[in-house]
Amino acid sequence: AADSTMFYAKSIGRNNVQFYSDVVHLRAASREQVALQARLSNAIEHDKLEVYFQPIINAQTGQVTEVEALTRWHDGQTGWINPQVFIPIAERLGLIRELGEQVMKQAFGVLQQWRRLGLHQRMAINVSRAQLFSPEFSSRLQTLLISHGLKPQDIEIEITESVALTDYSQQMVHLKALSQAGFKIAIDDFGTGYSSLSQLHEMPVDILKIDNSFTSRLHTEEGRRIVLAIVQMAQALCLEIVVEGVEKSTTASFLQGLGVKKLQGHYFSPPISASECYTLLVNGVSVSS
Ligand code: C2E
Ligand code: MG
Ligand code: MG
Ligand code: MG
User: Fold this and answer.
1) How far is the CA of 71 from the centre of ligand 1 (A)?
2) Has the ipTM of the complex gone over 0.95?
3) What is the per-residue pLDDT across 57-71, written as a single tens digit (0 to 9) for each?
4) Which ligand has the nearest atom to the CA of 215?
5) Sign of CA dihedral 51, 123, 64, 281
6) pTM of the entire predicted model
7) Any atom of ligand 1 within 6 Å of the Cβ of 212
């Protein structure tokens, strides 16, 4: 194949050297991709992913209301890989259900362990579209809950807003069933998708999580106006609001001033391991102001 590429490169003349080197780079990149995919597939199969936890804080009381489970992958070859990279790969490879299963097992195991230590904690988990739409998802979820001594009321299901629009009616069926079973439903990364007011009103949604990208623009007048508009809309629809990506005390107090009760971000705590999170839950979150 390399020979025929070279031949082709030669035959097209002038830019052949550039062309040839592009092809070589592309091939190297796709070889690297394939190798990465194989390592991810192996990591999922052998349960090598780790679940970290980030607290969501009631800004008025300082109490942790939920912890969000966020998956981490340490790849032996390249180190920590961002979920924004490996989650889409797992989705493309058809491995997201298996990944989701591992995440639920680990996360529920942690909740169960905390309970044995006398700590009752609600948890939010991220669920991707392929997972939500798979026919066995709901029953697997419930089976795993029961085997860990947990109830739907202990769990929030986060789905990203981009998901919220596509296959709207199919999604409604799944979300309604989960909501009726007692799970709370959160729309994640709210503001980055295209949900309409009427869809939001019809959907069995309890919580809007305002995306990091809005939080990071709160230093501008326009950014503040957009967040205010989203908050007012959520309040009008009687939806709870969580603002993600809170990094500074000024951001936290501005949002509290708007009536936002739940905040999440590095200002309070980054995602941390189960044992670090246990310590934090027992000792309470202290923020330096
Ligand atoms: P997400 O659910 O919207 O999670 C919030 C992301 O913001 C997390 O990124 C978190 O580490 C990050 N974050 C938290 N506080 C701050 C802050 O103060 N500033 C900034 N700039 N960022 C902050 P992470 O952990 O890299 O996860 C990225 C995304 O990957 C998640 O976004 C979620 O959509 C997806 N994801 C993670 N774990 C899972 C999983 O188990 N299943 C599925 N389906 N998706 C997952
Ligand atoms: Mg989330
Ligand atoms: Mg988000
Ligand atoms: Mg996100």
Assistant:
1) 8
2) yes
3) 999 899 999 999 999
4) 1
5) negative
6) 0.90
7) yes
